[in-house]
Design brief:
Distance between the termini: 59 Å
Number of domains: 2
Helix content: 10-25%
Radius of gyration: 19 Å
Structural class: alpha+beta
Number of strands: 15
CATH superfamily of the largest domain: duf1285 protein
Order of helices and strands: HEEEHEEEEEEEEEHEEE
CATH architecture of the largest domain: Roll
CATH topology of the largest domain: duf1285 protein fold
Strand order of the largest sheet: 3-2-1-6-5-4
CATH class of the largest domain: Mainly Beta
Strand content: 35-45%
Shape: elongated
Largest sheet: 6 strands, mixed
Amino acid sequence: MAEPLFQQLQKLQEEFRGHPPVDKWNPDFCGDMDMVIQSDGRWIHEGSEIKRQPLVNLFASILKREGRHYYLVTPVEKWRVRVEDVPFLITQAAREEGDANGCGQVLLTTNTGDVIPLDKAHPLELKPFGDPPLPIPYVAVRRGLLGRMSRDVYYQLIDWAEAREPQAPPARLCQLWLKSSGEEFLLGEY
């Protein structure tokens, strides 16, 4: 008989101290778990919010995406969970001032404590969200998992952005571009 999931998670946390290599684990599918990651970033298990942040962080560390489905994966178990939008929210941003060429770096922090640079490996992409759908920034966090930017962080990045005339039609009034790690990211048009 397999160990309970929680005991497996404790062992994995001790062994890997961070993010286990879930992309290398392919156990048999065990079924659907009554867990939902809501669009506001809350993790709900069997109808109740998981309020212990270390437990949420632990679950997030073994989250894997395959196609349009999300799974909690250990070396011996694979449970499908439901994700309303994306599994992470970007809740903080920090900026390292650039050099003479303006090449600084923006660091983003998720609601589960991941700190990622805004760069080529972790690009920002505008996608529709909400009702009515508006273009909102999403960022690649790790292994195909995305984070949606909170409104506060988005406004902070807009403060750091550079307004420019668009280079190609259809002509808009202005575009907002953000530089980070030698890359440029479109934050929006107005």
